[in-house]
Design goal:
Length: about 425
């Protein structure tokens, strides 16, 4: 193994912590729809996802090379910059997890890295063209492409199965969902696990442990794969709940279409070395699948909060990374202060999450307290009333009143007095 200094060891450990948060933050990408439609039990789903994330980490290093040698200029960048970048990414990941928002761990990492690099060496430390072509453009295109593909696939699925019994076809689609969810997990490993490999490789280069332009060493690949798999198995239940229940109500056909579309986009980007957000791809696919079913409705109030989080991820993580780098520039006490702030901030977020915990027991519960939103309310307002003879909606207030069932009486007998209601 390369010569590792104390500071470099701290950075490597912090990178693996980020990889762990990346794992539980992004479990929803592969398994939210599978869990919400009942295709797999929650614990079984996250266990399968964890194993396939680990396998995917060994399939390619193209994304890792993009991060280690493309986002920022390696020359003149100190190891402390990588540490500061990771602090910004971890804190943003934990905050959005607390809020149940499926934001991008990838963009959190990029934002922290850009902010810390600019604070350390100015804007010349950032490779603008690489960021535009391999980060920003995929960030905009991926959810749109995945959403359109999922919407078309959903409509095609329902059209092909129009003459069949939906209950019978749903069983087959649940099996298909398991396969497509596995494909998404594998794709996630080929993309997101490599980001941590790239950041550790970049830290080793800045610390002089390996030569510039080197591929990730084997121990880096193994440790990054194990860390993201462990985080995936823990399960980011809050985000799984939002993706599976908060955006739209999915049926097995829609879940299969969404996962297949997202996996195709992610695998294609990994092959090209594009470090896109798997979260944005999968979220876009879920919304596309929701709109693809006739009568399906997307909860735009949840989607709007998610879009805001996407827009804030790069600048917010960048500001935290820049602030952390400002402290590390002050010397060893600054590095220690940043470490303390990271631990303290993580502890506060964890304690807040315990006030209303979400786990595999209640991840599919229907008590999200989610407002319907303007669009959903408008659609509901123009929905025709139920046909004659159908069961009317009963409110909680109605249930408090007991009305006895009618009893057959002699037609010659006088009418009974009306019951007071």
């Amino acid at each position: 193994m390369e010569h590792i200094t104390l500071l470099l060891a701290i950075v490597v450990v912090t990178a693996l912590v980020f990889d762990f948060t990346n794992g539980f933050h992004d479990t929803a990408n592969a398994m939210a729809t599978t869990i919400s439609t009942g295709a797999l039990k929650p614990k079984t789903a996250v266990a399968m996802s964890a194993v396939l994330n680990l396998v995917g980490a060994f399939l390619s290093v193209e994304v890792a090379k993009t991060i280690s040698g493309g986002i920022i200029n390696e020359e003149g960048i100190r190891t402390e910059v990588i540490f500061a970048a990771l602090v910004g990414a971890i804190l943003w990941n934990l905050l959005t997890w607390l809020l149940g928002l499926p934001s991008s761990s990838s963009h959190a990492l990029f934002g922290g890295l850009i902010g810390a690099a600019v604070m350390s060496a100015g804007w010349s430390a950032v490779n603008g063209p690489t960021i535009v072509t391999k980060v920003l453009i995929p960030a905009v295109a991926a959810p749109i492409v995945a959403g359109l593909a999922a919407m078309l696939a959903t409509r095609l699925t329902y059209k092909l199965g129009a003459k069949t019994d939906e209950k019978h076809t749903a069983k087959g689609y649940r099996v298909g969902q398991i396969a497509s969810a596995g494909l998404v997990s594998l794709a996630h490993g080929t993309n997101d696990a490599q980001k941590t490999m790239g950041i550790i490789t970049l830290a080793l280069i800045t610390g002089g442990a390996i030569a510039p332009g080197s591929n990730p060493p084997l121990w880096v690949i193994v440790s990054a794969g194990v860390a993201i798999a462990a985080g995936t198995y823990l399960g980011g239940w809050r985000i799984i709940r939002t993706m599976g229940k908060g955006l739209t109500d999915l049926r097995p056909q829609q879940g299969f279409a969404a996962q297949t579309s997202a996996a195709t986009v992610i695998l294609a980007s990994s092959h090209l070395g594009f470090s896109l957000s798997t979260t944005q791809s999968c979220s876009g696919a879920v919304m596309g699948a929701g709109l693809g079913r006739k009568g399906g409705v997307v909860r735009w109030s949840t989607a709007t909060r998610m879009f805001v989080a996407w827009g804030l991820t790069l600048p917010a993580a960048g500001l935290v990374g820049a602030g952390a780098e400002f402290l590390t520039k002050q010397g060893p006490w600054g590095v220690a202060a940043v470490a303390v702030l990271l631990i303290a901030g993580s502890g506060v977020i964890w304690s807040l999450s315990r006030r209303k915990p979400v786990d595999h027991h209640n991840v599919t519960a229907d008590d999200l307290d989610e407002p319907a939103g303007v669009v959903t309310t408008a659609i509901a307002a123009v929905t025709p009333p139920p046909a004659a003879g159908s069961v009317a909606a009963v409110t909680d207030e109605d249930l408090k009143t007991t009305i006895p069932a009618p009893v057959p009486t002699d037609p010659t007998a006088p009418p009974a007095p009306a019951a007071a209601v």
